[in-house]
Design goal:
Length: 68
């Protein structure tokens, strides 16, 4: 699984109410979570799938839908 492949997949996110991990989603039965990092020292976000760090990214994918 590569981060690029996951960033290209449409995902509808929900708010978690947690500042460090603001978004979560369920994708094909797996729990996805976004961590907000110490930007600009670190990349803006880290994607976790099933509790595993899949990779970092800075730009929110256009095919991902954040909650209103």
């Amino acid at each position: 699984m590569t981060i690029a492949r996951q960033l290209a997949r449409p995902v509808v996110w929900r708010r978690t109410g947690r500042a460090e991990y603001p978004y979560a989603a369920s994708v094909a039965g797996q729990d996805w979570v976004i961590r907000l990092n110490d930007f600009p020292v670190d990349p803006m976000y880290t994607l976790f799938i099933g509790g595993r760090d899949v990779g970092d990214f800075d730009d929110w994918p256009g095919c991902w839908q954040r909650p209103g």
